[in-house]
Amino acid sequence: MLFAPAGTNVVDLYAKWEDQLVTVKFSANGGTFSADSVFKKNPAVFDIETDANGGEVAVVRSSPKVSDNVTLNALLASLGDGSVSASTEGIASPTNSVPIPPIRASRLTSTTSSAPSTSELSIFGFVYGHNYYYWFNDAARLF
Fold it and tell me: What pLDDT, on a 0 to 100 scale, did the predictor assign at position 92?
């Protein structure tokens, strides 16, 4: 509640705004990325860090403001030579079958994988296939 002194006609109010930044990370789920992975082959786009459990994490080198409403595709394309996108193999490429979750070390047993997200491939209402996307929780944030 705001009170103004008697006889005051105008009160100036100021808000302090702090931009919140988005950090995009891709986890190797306690393991390491192969030398030919999209993450290691594109050092202008990704920094490779180590998480609390010793696994590698690829961090996108730019942190846009939340208010910028930047898509993952636009963010990745704005870095390096622009050849990396959300559909680049190894990032979030769809497959035509439900992927089998990889076996994780026992120290990561509480790392659960989410159910695959699916999108139907259809034409005029006839479904002729599915794309599946599979995501894993960040093991470093579970402990």
Answer: 67
